[in-house]
Amino acid sequence: MQKSIEALRHSLTLDYDSARSMPAEFYTSEKLLEVEKDKLFTSQWLCLGRIQQIPKPGDYYATEVMGEPLIVVRTNMQTISVLSNVCRHRGSILVRDSGNTDTFTCPYHSWSYNIDGSLRRAPLIIDRPDFEPKKCRLPAFSSEVWGGFIYVNLDGTAPTLASQLEGLSNLIKNYHMSDMVELHSEESTWDTNWKCLTENFMEGYHLSTVHRKTLHPITPTHLCEHFPAGQGYFGYFSVFPDDLPQRGKFHPDLTTKERQRSVMFAIPPGHVAGVAGHKVTYLYIQPDTVDTVRVKRGIAFADPAISNDSLENAVDLFEQTMAEDKIQLANLRQGLHSRSVTTAPLAPANFEGNVLDFYQYLARHIL
């Protein structure tokens, strides 16, 4: 792990013209992964889903982040909460599905809770001097909504997400991403290190090679434009060719320039996305081991009444590109375990600048 720590520290002294890739250990060290889980995935903001998944009061879904079982629930039209999905009695999981309810009832001994987490009923347990039902409730985790996405901070120590994303908010405000509706989602495990997947999504250097038939005609490498990173984000513009026809419905607030590009952004450690006028595509990333990562991916559209053909075409393009990336990242995983791996120069800022941005983000939060 020491090589990785030294390389991260050195990355803080580099600019885009002198940036180099990391040593293989950066992607294969189990000790480093444990540090990342503690200092990043427990202590920073993680994306859990879209607000449209729970549109009505009482709507909820169960999920898990870094081994922590959670319930994401809309308690009223203005409030979304993230609660512990563990009964306060003897630790059973409360729910494993999604739905609408006014009560979460434990399947083990029927303890029940209101959707704000307060205890509703503990059967047959009355008049105990060591137990105050009014003080018993499901723990609530720090949560925020940004751009229609729901985030959680497990240990409650991260600065507010909104304050970290001010610059990014200004870049994407005219896209009205919060109004886009999720119409496609998938989940799978990929054979790669989580950082490799983040870097891959956030650099345009590979677009015209790995995605020659899928993305190159739409977002070729040579048109990528890096933009300055902020406290809690980094990204680039994926610019469309001038002769590419407009795809799908877009918000009238968008300028001509904004309609001709996607804003590719990362909100590390576990969220990467690309928003265009007609849709936003995104991945929620959570490491399992140094060589495997759980990937939830989805697409939300500006036009919820998009035709079936257009929806199918958009999903096919997205899933084809994901399949192409998945193959390449599996190859990368194998190569990074070789004794012959070395470091090399990164491409100019427009093409791999976000890789250095990512290194420097990690250095600021790990060192």
From TrEMBL:
One of its GO terms (molecular function) is oxidoreductase activity. Its cofactor is Fe cation. It holds the Pfam family Ring_hydroxyl_A. CDD domains: Rieske_RO_Alpha_N. Residues 45-152 form the Rieske domain. Keywords: 2Fe-2S, Iron, Iron-sulfur, Metal-binding, NAD, Oxidoreductase. Signal peptide: none annotated. PROSITE patterns: RIESKE, RING_HYDROXYL_ALPHA. This is Rieske 2Fe-2S domain protein.
